[in-house]
């Protein structure tokens, strides 16, 4: 495997690893961070690394904090085992001040804290307000901003790029038909909601209600009763539409796997056989048998829109 990982300790000391035993790298359109698990042979003990920069064939695929690391000596050799999440994981750990925030931009949200290594488009337009619930993660506010901006859902591209708008390129990355291992279809309806009833400002129900046609088609009955959502007090229908869209994520999917890796990223347009769609989930694994990539394409309200 042509795999490299550069580790840094808290003092900036650098260790380069090239003898990879195995790794798993996962990125998902609906996950705020990438996750890497890896094992490398080393010539000497490696203690307390804090950052992992991971590449395949010279292409950067991951840059993140190391959450757990263990260097084990066995049969006269050292094996470093570690797990890492990309720096965007901090978006799920920090919280904004609760209450109404007016004249909000992505930049104003992101500048609340000094967040290392995360990049974004600082020219994204202003929206009127967001409402921050008590104990809500910063990622929740970013999701609310994105939905109010364009009815979209935020996502992360390599290495720590926060994106609001869908990719628009029309040149597809060809996936290798001659190295295809599996091609499957599926879907996830486990979180699908059939109807939302929301109370009005007086606390009375019956004013705001919305049915999910995708749930009706599948004979799913899951009704939610919620109080007035202050996030959408000026557009209450959006509160219902948002929850139904969230519940329909991953409702239809197609997954292909192949030997190797072709350089695709989340939201890149890919093509193989009769499939031409934007990738929503990437799982890359490697071991003594080489590298294998599994690409999943969601078809739902936010991905490959249906």
Overall pLDDT level? 96
Strand content range: 35-45%
Output the structural class.
Answer: mainly beta
Let me know the number of strands: 22
Sheet having the most strands: 11 strands, antiparallel
Structure, described:
The protein is mostly beta strands and 306 residues long. The protein has four domains: 87 residues, Roll (Phage tail proteins - horseshoe like beta roll fold), CATH 2.30.300; 70 residues; 65 residues; 48 residues, no CATH class. The chain has four helices and 22 strands. The strands form five sheets. It has an eleven-stranded antiparallel sheet, with no helix packed on it. Strands 9-12-11 form a three-stranded mixed sheet, with no helix packed on it. Strands 13-19-20 form a three-stranded mixed sheet, with no helix packed on it. It is globular and about 70 Å long. The two termini are 38 Å apart.
What topology does this entry show?
Layout: E1 3-8, E2 14-17, E3 20-28, E4 35-42, E5 51-56, E6 59-74, E7 77-86, E8 99-104, H1 106-110, E9 119-120, E10 127-132, H2 138-150, E11 155-157, E12 161-163, E13 173-174, E14 180-186, E15 195-198, E16 208-211, H3 213-217, E17 223-226, H4 236-247, E18 252-259, E19 269-272, E20 275-278, E21 281-287, E22 290-299
Parallel strand pairs: 9-12, 13-19, 15-17
Antiparallel strand pairs: 1-2, 1-5, 3-4, 3-21, 4-7, 5-6, 6-7, 8-10, 11-12, 14-18, 15-16, 18-22, 19-20, 21-22
